[in-house]
Amino acid sequence: MSKKRTAHIISHTHWDREWYLPYEKHHMLLIQLMDTLLHTLERDPEFKSFYLDGQTIILEDYLQVRPEKKEQLEAYIKEGRIHIGPWYILQDAFLTSSEANLRNLQIGHQDAARYGTIAKVGYFPDTFGNMGQAPQILRQAGIDNAMFGRGVKPTGFNNTVSDSDYESSFSELLWEGPDGSRVLGILFANWYCNGMEVPTNEKEAKEYWERKLADAEKYASTGELLFMNGCDHQPIQQDLSEAIRTARKLFPDTEFVHSNVADYLQAVNRSLDRELSVVKGELRSQRTDGWSTLVNTASARVYLKQMNQRGQALLEKVAEPLASFAHLLGKEYPHHLFTYAWKTLMQNHPHDSICGCSVDEVHREMVTRFDKSRHVAETIVDDSKRVIAEAIDTSVFARMGAEARPLVVFNTTGWERTGVVTVELDAERLYFRDGFPLDEMSRRMQALDVSGRVLVDAEGRAVPFTMQDLGLQFGYDLPDDKFRQPYMCRRVSLTFEAQNVPALGVAAYAWLKSADPASSPAADAASLLNCDRVMENALLRVEIAEDGSLAVTDKQTGRTFRDLGVYENTGDIGNEYMYKQPNGETTLTTKGLKADIRVVEDTPYRATVEIVHEWSVPASGDAVFEQEKRELVYFPHRQGQRVKDMVPLTIRTQVSLSRSGRGVELQASFNNQAKDHRLRALFPTDVETAVHRADSIFEIATRDNEPAAEWENPSNAQHQQAFVDVSGAGAGLTIANLGLQEYEVLRDGRNTIAVTLLRSVSELGDWGLFPTPEAQCLGEQTVRLEIIPHSGDGSASGAFAEAYLFQIPWTACQTGVHGGPIASGYAPYRWEGGALAFSSMKVSEASGDLMLRWFNMEAAGTELGLHSARGAESVYKSNVLEEEGTLVSEEPSLSLAVGPYEIVTLGVKRK
C-alpha cells in the first residue's frame, strides 16, 4: 500500500511591524492577535502550535502592553505550542549591513534562549531577495534549512526541468552559498498563505482542498505538502481544528496534521528520494520579467538609507571597537547599552521599514529611532575614547613646547589609515565653580591669543594643519562623582592629515607653542592644485571639464576614466517599490551644461573644487499619471508623462583630493523641488567585461551586466552596500558610496556605473492606493561618493579596502598631558591576510571574550596572520553566534587557513 500524502498545516502570522498603517495601529492589531492566540491555545488542545514569524520582537511588543500575560506566554513557549526565533526582526537582508544581519541573529537567539527554546529555522518569508552568504551564516548558527518566498522561480516537476542557478524543479531545493555551504531550501512556491482560511463547510472544503492539494503537488518533490495557515497580519483561525476534521473526512487518502516547522522539515528530510535542484548564491529573482523584484526599494526615501549607514557604521565600526579597546584597558564593556542601541536601530530594519515602502507616519518614526540609537552609540564612543586617551602617554609633548594641548586620533577600521581629520580643541577653559563673573570669563577667553602655534606628532614632527577659530563657547562636564561642571572656553577646530595610524590603533598629536620655530611645516605646504580645474597627488590626476564632468587618471596604470560625475534625470511614474520611466521620455543629463567652477579649499593636505550646475527639470508627473494612480493601474502599464513646467535643480558638487588619497571624494548638495523623478550620477568605465562586482553581505558578489532572457524591465537596478566595481584586464573603477544603495551598470557600450542619488515618488504601491507625499523627498539633500580607480583587481590593489574605509568616520578627542601604559602608535592587534576584509571587533556577552571577525573576499583560500601586542592569549575559532570552538593558538602570533569566501570569527580568551 502506498504511503499517504501528508498535509502539514502550520499556523502562523506574517507580522509586518509597520507598513500600510503606522506602527501603533499595527501594534494594536498585534495585541488583539496575541490575546486571541493565547485564548485559542487555552481552550482548544487540538490547536497544536503556532509559529511567531521568526522574530522575537513580537514578544517585546506584546508584553509592553500585556505584561500580565508573560507567565502564560512562557508556558506555551516551553510546551512547544508557540515557536519563537531565530531572528530579532525580519530584516531586509540587502539594505542592512553584514554585522547588522548577525546582530539580528545573535539578539534573536539571545532573547529566545531566555524562554528556553529557539526555532532553528532560516526564516525569510518575505525578504526582498536573499543574500548569497545566507547558507554559510545559517550553517555557522547551527541551522540547516531556509524557508523563503522570493528570488527563485519554481518550474514544477510536471512542467519543465530547471536549467538555471535561479530555478528549481521543486519547492524543495538545495541552496548553496559561495563558500560551498548548503542548506535545504523550502520555497513558498504558493506563497506563505497557501493554507489560510481553511473552510469548515464540507462543500467549500472539498473545493478548497482539491485546488490547494493540486497546487502544492505541482511543485513538491515528496508527499509532504506544506500549507501555511496565515498571512500578513492574518487573524488566528480559531476553528482550524474543526476545519482539519472536515478535511480528514473528505480526503481519507491524505493525512492532515496541525504541524510545525521542525516536524515538517524532519518529514521532508525523511521522504526525499530524488535529486533536488541546486540554487547558488544570491536569490534576486534573476529569471523573471524584472517588473516585480522590488529592487527599487533600495532608492525609496534615500535619507533613511543614509541615516542607517551612519547608525550602523557608528555602532559596529566605531563604538564596538572603541569599547573593546577600552575593555582591554580595564573598562567594563557596556553590553546592555549595545543591546539597547542595536535593538533600537534594528526596529528600523524590517523590510517594510528600511525599504522605505510604508506610509509616511512609519518613516517619520524611523527618523526618531535612528536618532535614539545614534545618541546611545555616541555616548559609548565618548566614554570609551576618554578611557583610551587617558591611557596614552602624552608626557612627551610637555618637552616640545608650551601650553601643549594633546589630542588622540583613533583608527577604528581594520586597515592602517591615512586621511584628513578634523578635531575641536579647547585652548583654555574657565569653570563657573572658580567664581569668576561671566563677563570676566568671556573677556578672558576672547582675549586669548590662539595664533603662532604648531601641530606636532609624538615624534615632534610638525604636521601641516589649518585652524578655524570657533571663538567663545559654553561647555560642561558630567563627572561620575559630582554635579555637572559648566565652563566657558575658547575653542578652535584643527584639520590635518593623520598619517599611517595603525589598524584598530591610536596616534597622539599636540597643538602647542613651539619651542623651535624652525619646526614650522611651511616647506611641506605645496598645493595639490595645478590650476583651478586640475588636482593632482602622487597617485591620481583629476581634470574638470567645463560641464563639470571629471577625467580621473590612475598614475599607476596610466588609465584615464572620462565623463565621470555627469548627472542624469528621468521621470518616475512608479512607486516606493519599483521605478518606471515614462514611455518614450528623453533622458536629461548635465553633459554639455556649462558649470560654475571655483576652488574652495587649497591646503597642503587637501584641495577641493566646487562645481555648480544651474539645471531645470520637469516639475512633476502629469494628470494622466494622477488618474492612473487613482484607478490602480499596474505601474508597468502606465502611460503618464511629466508636465512641461520646469523647476530649478541646482546641484553643488565639491570634488576633493587629499595628499595621500587613493580616491576622489564627491559631495553633492541640492534642494529638490521636483516630484515624480529620479536623479543619478553616472560613471562611465569604458572597461570591457560581461560582469561586475558589488559589495553585499559578507561577500563581494559577482553579477552579470546583461540580465536573463526573460527580463523585460528596461531598468536592471540592483542593491549594493559600500561599493560597486567594474574591472577588466589592467584597469578597474570602484565607486564607493555612503547610504546610496541602488546602482545599475548600464548597457550603453561603456559599462557606465549609475548610482541613484534620489528617487521621488508619491505612493506606496502594492495592493492598493496609499498616498505617500513625503516619499517625494522635497527639500535639501546631500550625498557622498568616492571614485577609486585601480589596476583591475579591486581586492589585491586595495581599492575595496579603500571603499570600506570610506564608510567609517575618523574619531578624535582632546586629552591632557599625562603618563600612561600605552604609547602613540599602539594597537592591541595586528593582522595580515591577503584578500581578507576586517568586519568587527567586539566582546561576547556570554563569554566575555574578545571577538574578531573577517571574511574572505575572493574564491581562493588565504592565510590569516594575527599578532597580539598583549602577549600570549588563547585564541579559538568561533562562529557567527560567537560560541567557543576549536583552540587555534596559545601564542602571541598565529596563522590560520581561511577558505574561499569564508566568514571567520576568532575568540580571544586572556590567559
Automatic annotation (TrEMBL):
Record's superkingdom?
Bacteria
Residues forming the Glycoside hydrolase family 38 central domain are 297-370
Q: Which Pfam families does the annotation name?
A: Alpha-mann_mid, Glyco_hydro38C2, Glyco_hydro_38, Glyco_hydro_38C, Glyco_hydro_38N
Key words, A-Z? Glycosidase, Hydrolase, Metal-binding
Record family assignment: Belongs to the glycosyl hydrolase 38 family.
Protein name listed in UniProt:
Alpha-mannosidase
Please name the source species.
Paenibacillus oleatilyticus
